[in-house]
## 1
Amino acid sequence: MPVDTGAAAPSAAVPAAAAPSTPSAAAAPRIVTRVVFARDGQKQGIERLHVVRRQNTMNNVAGQVALNVALLALGVGAAGAGFSKTDLLGDEIPELANDPVAVNPGMDDLRDALSVIATRVYTERAAQAQAEARTDGSTPEEIQAAGEVPTTLDTPLHPRAWQLVYENLSTDDGLYRLRFAAEMGRAGFLRPPMLCAYESEPLTWTAWSAQNWQALREARSQAVAHCTQVLAAFADKRW
């Protein structure tokens, strides 16, 4: 499947001793090994924040009922597939059309945070491998190769939900929770993907959008910090 490795990713392995060459670069987090983003068959639209309102579920239920009535009239069994409100994509938020806060964190902030950690992990591994190569009779070429740090992590990041989801269907209380989830890895019997999930406290739509969506910006940062901590806990053994 196609993956986005980011424009900053180099095309060849980078020596472990590589260092920023300018004062401004030295102040920024050092990224050599970049985490890649993979859509992994997710529905179109996950790249931007969506809101799932009560009406979205009501419309879905009404559509399912109409389909079942039509099938029964034709003598066909009902298509009784259940669903959760979290299965819905929802609607885009026009007020945030050009605001970076609406970008799925898995595509930028979380990916960058994990890339910094991946760089540390693989730089340390390269240093250890190179030290061993210097003592085991390896050739100069093999010693140099042992110290090279990969430019991309072979464990892809799969962003999932990025939504404001209504709290109650039966009561129109105007409350919404911010939901975010992401996985790292490839599905397999022995090594299933690593999952992180974040859910905020419920707030009214007015509270979310107040002061230029300040509550959303704070919750987004919390989601990134939470998922960075959860996914990085697997770094030494699973990356």
## 2
Amino acid sequence: MNGSAAGADVCVCFPAAGGGGATLALLRDTAARRGMTVLALSNAESVADVDSGRWKDRAVQEVRQAVAHMSGRRVVLAGHSMGGLSAICLHAALGTRMSVPTGVLVINTPCPDPSGRIPTMSHLPDREIAQVLAHDGFPQELLDDEDMLSEIAHGLRRDAVVADRLAEVIGSADHLDQLHVLSGRDDRFIPPERCAAWRHRVAEEFHLTITPGGHALDATRTAAVERAFDGLLAATPQREVTA
């Protein structure tokens, strides 16, 4: 966590399946440049972690502590792919437990269909996962190493099972008040139409930005991320903080 000014906004960032990556770094850097306190949280570790409420309780507590420590005026929840599902799930929990204005930005996060399903890697074999990763620029030499690919694919499938459960939870939840979505036009795994479908789950303001790029966005897409981020900040009021 970084940031030092009292009354700073708090940005809570969640990664895609597998954790980390250029998109998460881009989100964190964008928030930091705006003087926000950046809090990087993990996605739930298992379906049991979701269903028991343990993950949600931990996340709420960490956000509460960050907001209290910084006298935070508002909270931005931002996530990439699976991390976007985490951000949306946490948004509902914060709404019932905190009084700080909260907005959500998701990047290449699929909207669950009416049955609560999303495009998922949970049942993909190693080679199909390799094809998805190769299209997104993952180093080919790692994908050609069968042992390395097996390890990568196993981790992604494990996370994808949790993402599937988060999608089911969201699919049965009430509509969001507002949501900002950024979608990579060239993302074959989560195409823009799966991101645009969020408009059916948003009761008030829905903002969709489509930018060139694949599933992972790197520094070349900084301007698009900044525009989406600034649009969210403009739409999310600040809480007045007394001295």
## 3
Amino acid sequence: MDEAEYIAAFRTVYHQQATHDLIWENIELFAARYLTTNLRIDVRPFVLSGIDVGADVRDMIVGGDESKTSLSLFGDIATDLPVSFSAEPSFEAEVEGSDRTLFSFPSFTVFPTAEAPVEIEETSVSADALTVIFDQETRIELNMQLENYYPGRSLDLGQGITINLKVRKKGGLIFNV
């Protein structure tokens, strides 16, 4: 087959809608794989150097009969980076000479829409773990896996990930008067 015959045959097959769609679908798939292969982001842990709320407030929050009270953390996370990622944040600290995970949140996926944060599921925290967070240096590890890169969105210096966490205590508070 000479070149002219090949070109004519290719045009005939290419101009069939199913073939045209299949070729473009594979080009898009290849481009998506190419743009996300070896995509990495260096996420350094956020370090809390203890939370100085005063001994009275700390004791009021973490104190009490654990059978009648519960502590939990919840919140939201958002990003304006041009990526989506799955994350499983955890709080870690050195306890008695070795690193220990104090607690971790269930995994969730975050998409690049800072205006619509993803809710972080309410997760129980033991009073001991919260005491460690109040009293000493604790690392918040994001434990993330990049899922998708959106090349049509800009990547600027001021972009980042915003995490808002809140403590909830159910049950009585301890007052030392």
